[in-house]
From TrEMBL:
Keywords: Aminopeptidase, Hydrolase, Metal-binding, Protease
Domain of life (superkingdom): Bacteria
The gene coding this protein: map
Entry's family note: Belongs to the peptidase M24A family. Methionine aminopeptidase type 1 subfamily.
Protein name per Swiss-Prot or TrEMBL: Methionine aminopeptidase
Catalyzed reactions: Release of N-terminal amino acids, preferentially methionine, from peptides and arylamides
Annotated HAMAP family: MetAP_1 (MF_01974)
Annotated source species: Nocardia thailandica
Length: 262
């Protein structure tokens, strides 16, 4: 069931979204050559504790994972793209790092992700990151009242096609609000004019993610981390947005994050 949120409830989600954006900015700033993923997890855990927020990942145990997640942030490196389980790994020059964070504050959830390159960037990696950022912007722009969910998916898919990246439809965006995952599912490609009608009060996590060379993914032995099946690099960008009478409103604005260049 899709639950439409009131303007007051959207503002509460916006408070959570501001916190998520700020913590992701902190991860971005700390992600340097030699920094351990476990140190980044510890930073996020402490920020959540200080704020009195609740991690949406801790104890998360969906059908596609192996037992409770038992961490507060997903950290995916290089050919990993989703649900990256923080582990004992020191970041290396040129690594592609995605941080994905969802928390609840006062019962309202926000979810966002950002991909950055550590140290010396490879132009091909910057291009991949930029493609997800542009696809995210296109998907958000299409989330207008009176439109269809397929408009959002088609806008994302068009950017992927323009860059020549294949699209996986198994994992995509989703509704959210009182919980991290609510209806509807938001595929990263689709047909415009089809699907659920977009109405004011609809809140979505829009999250294009692409692997450079394949639309197939495999799961690590840890039971969580999803990687490209061919070992190619991956990137993932995500915002929580609300559909309003005036158009889409980004609830996880991240002004402090440095966009991909090149």
């Amino acid at each position: 069931m899709v639950e439409l949120k009131s303007p007051r409830e959207i503002e509460k989600m916006r408070v959570t979204g501001g916190f998520v954006a700020d913590v992701l900015a902190g991860v971005h700033e700390r992600a340097a050559v030699g920094v351990n993923l476990l140190d980044l997890e510890a930073y996020v855990r402490e920020r959540i504790r200080e704020r009195g927020a609740v991690s949406c990942y801790w104890d998360y145990a969906p059908s596609f994972g192996r037992g409770p997640f038992r961490n507060t942030v997903c950290l995916s490196v290089n050919d990993a793209v989703l649900h990256g389980l923080p582990h004992d790994y020191a970041l290396r020059d040129g690594d592609v790092l995605t941080a994905d964070l969802a928390v609840s504050i006062d019962g309202w959830v926000a979810d966002a992700a950002v991909t950055s390159v550590v140290g010396t960037p490879d132009p091909a990696d910057l291009r991949l990151v930029r493609a997800t950022e542009e696809a995210l912007a296109a998907g958000i722009a299409a989330a207008r009242p009176g439109g269809r969910l397929g408009d959002v998916s088609a806008a994302i898919g068009a950017v992927a096609a323009a860059y020549g990246y294949p699209v996986n439809t198994e994992f995509g965006g989703h509704g959210l609000g009182r919980t991290m995952h609510e209806d509807p599912h938001v595929p990263n490609t689709g047909r415009a004019g089809r699907g659920f009608r977009l109405r004011p009060g609809l809140t979505l996590a829009i999250e294009p993610w692409f692997a450079a060379g394949t639309d197939r993914i495999v799961t690590d032995p840890d039971g969580w981390t999803l990687r490209s099946a061919d070992g190619s690099r991956c990137a993932h960008s995500e915002h929580t947005i609300a559909v309003t009478e005036d158009g889409p409103l980004v609830l996880t604005a991240a002004d402090r994050l440095t966009p991909a260049a090149g």
